[in-house]
Write a structure and sequence with these properties.
The protein is of the alpha/beta class and 200 residues long. The chain is built from 5 helices and 9 strands; from the N terminus they run H-E-H-E-E-E-H-E-E-E-E-E-H-H. It starts with a helix and ends in a 6-residue tail after the last helix. Bound molecules: zinc ion (2 copies). One zinc ion (ZN) binds next to helix 5.
Length: 200
């Protein structure tokens, strides 16, 4: 599928929908695009995609892309999350938010640590974020991958960390608290609903 054509088509469709619905419910023309980097299990990618699409129907997925060489951090043999986000940002058009999915370890600068390994990174707000499977519990990979993905997407939408311990927007504070997170809390859900997300 040609992404440019499909995005143009989607934009056009939503312009028409916005026009049709201008006096009724709030409309949302934003698109979420999942962009897997090569080497990631397509079953994991597919699972995250299906679950995100259920909450945000304007979601699409691209074919796997090469990991850009300039994002590699040789001293630790891993990839810089900030550089991956910058790469994704450069390839993100218009009203789209791109979420990069990667199997390799990723890192960023955190306080006094120049190269700190992370599960994911997303700016708040932003139009790109990155999620890695590398630091997740191997026996709960599918679920944890989704939880990190939805957390980073939440940041891109403007959601900060949440004090509710069972909320997807909880700050992991360097650990893995994913098994204690069950859903977005009521207030994070209300915020996302205002951005066009669908919750039952
Ligand atoms: Zn966070
Ligand atoms: Zn919350």
């Amino acid at each position: 599928m040609n992404k440019r054509i499909s995005l143009r088509y989607v934009s056009l469709l939503f312009l028409l929908l916005m026009y049709a619905c201008r006096d009724t419910a709030q409309t949302n023309s934003k698109v979420i695009l999942l962009k897997p980097f090569k080497g990631l299990d397509p079953i994991l990618t597919g699972n995250v995609y299906n679950r995100i699409k259920a909450l945000y129907p304007n979601s699409f997925i691209s074919l796997p892309v090469e990991i850009p060489n300039q994002c590699y951090y040789a001293p630790r043999k891993r990839y810089r999350a900030d550089k991956l986000i910058s790469y994704l940002h450069q390839h993100t058009e218009g009203d789209t938010v791109t979420i990069g999915l990667i199997a390799q370890d990723i890192s960023t600068t955190k306080g006094k640590y120049y190269d700190w390994g992370v599960m994911g990174l997303g700016y708040c707000p932003g139009n790109a974020c990155i999620v890695s499977t590398f630091r997740l519990s191997k026996n709960q990979l599918m679920d944890q991958f989704y939880k990190v993905a939805i957390h980073e997407l939440g940041h891109t939408q403007g959601l900060p960390h949440c004090a509710n311990k069972s909320c997807f927007m909880r700050d992991a504070e360097g650990g893995n608290t994913l098994n204690e997170e069950v859903d977005f809390c009521v207030s994070c859900k209300a915020y996302l609903k205002s951005k066009g997300w669908k919750f039952l």
